[in-house]
Automatic annotation (TrEMBL):
Name of the featured protein: Branched-chain alpha keto acid dehydrogenase E1 subunit beta
InterPro entries: THDP-binding (IPR029061), Transketo_C/PFOR_II (IPR009014), Transketolase-like_Pyr-bd (IPR005475), Transketolase_C (IPR033248)
Keyword Oxidoreductase appears in the UniProt entry: yes
Domain Transketolase-like pyrimidine-binding: 5-180
Taxon lineage: Bacteria, Bacillati, Actinomycetota, Actinomycetes, Kitasatosporales
Keywords linked to the UniProt accession: Oxidoreductase, Thiamine pyrophosphate
Pfam families per UniProt: Transket_pyr (PF02779), Transketolase_C (PF02780)
Organism: Streptomyces griseoaurantiacus M045
């Protein structure tokens, strides 16, 4: 059963499948029910599964996640939506001090299978607190899995795997890509949740990205090919844990690495990748690992975001600098 669908639709279908398969799965969040979510990702779910399975919550992120933790303790598998990335911080305490720690605190006796869905990133012309990329904050916290799909097929299958996981999963959804369409085989056997994939093979340089930046890196590879350069694009898919083995295998082949993400470069996920790959591939690298990302500044007003976000020219400039060594 292969169908072409947008990322938002793929997530909707994945949630629908999970709700049908397991009566303990719940969907919770602000406006997820009657409205179907501000991006309509949960459209139609409350109508089909009822208000006790798809729950419109108060505007209280800390309370939403805290309630989900209590439900998970009673055997449910809540899928919580944080309406926008910048709204997650009132719930940060619940996530990092309760959700992430309970398994270790109970010596493995208590599991909290909670999925926290967060539409994240810029590129949609939104107002303040609606375009953040806080993934590194959660990846830094032991006890949380942090993932981000870049295409419709991964959006469908990674959501399934996140809901089935007994560990808490922070599921970052690239909102600027919600309407990008791709083939989804709903009967395929998915690969491991935390394994990176090679989105495009190449020989001269490796581009590593996840979520919204994978599409940009594929466009960069197309542009570089016109100049006779062969770039490999690795889609991380998972930010914690990170699949360093797949990145290492690519870098040992190409000997150059550029890491791209929307979040600020300073102490971003790319910093860990650069450090670890430098340790692992020191004698293979022919240039320093370079990083392209946002600036170490508050996310700007919408009319300036194109200057803030990584674009084709900024990534190509990093490619040129790396290959010039």
């Amino acid at each position: 059963m292969t169908e072409k669908m947008a990322i938002a639709k793929a997530i909707n279908e994945s949630l629908r499948q999970a709700l049908e398969a397991d009566p303990k799965v719940l969907v919770m969040g602000e406006d997820v029910g009657k409205l179907g979510g501000v991006f309509r990702v949960t459209d139609g779910l409350q109508k089909d599964f009822g208000e006790e399975r798809v729950i419109d919550t108060p505007l209280a992120e800390s309370g939403i996640v805290g309630t989900a933790i209590g439900l998970a303790l009673r055997g449910y598998r809540p899928v919580v939506e944080i309406q926008f990335d910048g709204f997650v911080f009132p719930a940060y305490d619940q996530i990092v001090t309760q959700l992430a720690k309970m398994y270790a605190r109970s010596l493995g006796k208590v599991k909290l299978p909670v999925v926290v869905r967060i539409p994240y990133g810029g590129g949609i012309g939104a107002v303040e607190h609606h375009s953040e990329s806080p993934e590194a904050l959660f990846a830094h916290v032991a006890g949380l899995k942090v993932v981000s799909p870049s295409n419709a097929s991964d959006a469908y299958w990674m959501m399934q795997q996140a809901i089935q996981s007994d560990d808490p999963v922070i599921f970052f959804e690239p909102k600027r890509r919600y309407w990008d369409r791709g083939e989804v085989n709903t009967e395929a056997i998915p690969g491991p949740l935390h394994r990176a994939t090679v989105a495009r093979e190449g020989t001269d340089l490796t581009l590593v990205a996840y979520g919204p930046m994978v599409k940009l890196c594929l466009e960069v590879a197309d542009a570089a090919a016109e100049e006779g350069r062969s770039l490999e694009v690795v889609d991380l898919r998972s930010i914690s844990p990170l699949d360093f083995d797949s990145v290492q295998a690519s870098v040992e082949k190409t000997r150059h690495l550029v890491v791209v993400h929307e979040a600020p470069v300073f102490l971003g996920s790319g910093a860990e990748i650069a450090a670890r790959i430098t340790e692992r591939c020191f004698y293979h690298l022919e240039a320093p690992v370079l990083r392209v990302g946002g600036y170490h500044a508050p996310y700007p007003p919408a009319r300036l975001e194109e200057s803030y976000l990584p674009d084709l020219d900024r990534v190509l400039d990093a490619v040129d600098r790396s290959l010039a060594y």
